Amino acid sequence: MDGFSPVSLFGVLVIVVWLFNSINVLREYERGVIFRLGRLLPQAKGPGLIFVFWPIDKIVKVPLRTVTLDVPPQDIITSDNVSVKVNAVVYFRVIDAIKSIVEVENYLYATSQLSQTTLRSVLGEVALDDLLSHRETLNLKLQTILDQHTDPWGIKVALVEVKQVDLPQEMQRAMAKQAEAEREKRAKIIHAEGEFQAAAKLAQAAAVVAKEPVAIQLRYLQTLTEIGVEKNTTVIFPVPIDILEAFYKKQQ
Questions:
Q1: Residue 71: which of 109, 106, 105, 126 has the closest Cα?
Q2: Residue 153: is its pLDDT beyond 80?
Q3: 15, 67, 179, 229: which has the fewest C-beta neighbours closer than 10 Å?
Q4: Residue 195's pLDDT is what?
Q5: CB 152, CB 96: distance < 8 Å
Q6: Cβ 158 vs Cβ 66: under 8 Å
Q7: Which CATH architecture has domain 67-171?
């Protein structure tokens, strides 16, 4: 220890501190944007072990994993003047680390605000029925608009999904009445179609019986056979008068 002066120990300590602040380890999903004396280096660093000349260089770490952004419920008035609350979820990730730092102050906050504004403007242009029944089309339109506006920030919007549409109680009751009326209409139409088909079949059967009068007797006997299966049924069998005329003639 006698060979080391305080100045040498201080120099070693400074070198250790400098190395500790200059060596950085970036994970596989991270990139480092380097500013040297305030000027941007042309390429982002990482992943792995990188060397930063501290304090000349400053590093900003940018994650490249997909971010799940929950868009809070937005008050929206549809084109048919119905007030609803709609929330959504946006999936995006950084594809250019340099642009995400240089072109926008806070890309997470900027994407969140843009998502809320776009959700209100796009859904405010459609009617309530389209909002409820054309989700896929609206999701694609939202994704296209967001991706177009966030592309200069180095961000790729992969998916936008409208999660929930909260309707007022009055509108829910009106829609329930509409659905009930629609079902009643369909039931009446189906019943009328059944009656029409039954009448057509009966007309065909009447035409066959008219050609062969004996068919009505055969049908009558078949009906008696079906009724006779039940033991608690009293069957009244009418006898045609033509059959009894022979007996009347013999008695005379």
A1: 109
A2: yes
A3: 229
A4: 87
A5: no
A6: yes
A7: 2-Layer Sandwich (3.30)
Distances (CA, A) of 249 to 222, 238, 239: 31, 21, 17
32: its two tokens: 């480092």
CA distance 19 to 15: 6
Q: Which residue has the tokens 């680390």?
A: 97
Residue 50, Ramachandran bin (φ over 0: left; ψ between -120 and 50: alpha; else beta): beta
Q: For helices 135-150 and 107-123, what crossing angle results, to 10°?
A: 140
180-223 tens-digit pLDDT: 787 888 888 888 888 888 888 888 877 877 777 667 667 767 77
Give the E-state strand segments of the chain in sequence order. Answer: 23-26, 30-36, 39-40, 48-51, 57-63, 67-77, 83-94, 155-166
Which helix H or strand E contains 203, and what residues bound it?
A: helix 169-211
Closest Cα to residue 119, out of 56, 72, 53? 72
Residue spans of beta strands (DSSP E) within 95-234: 155-166
CA distance 168 to 78: 13
- Report whether pLDDT(238) > 70: no
Among 60, 64, 88, residue whose Cα is nearest residue 76: 88
pTM exceeds 0.90: no
1: pLDDT confidence band, cut at 50, 70 and 90? very low
Domain boundaries defined on the chain: 6-62, 67-171, 202-252
- Look up residue 63 and give its two tokens: 């994650």
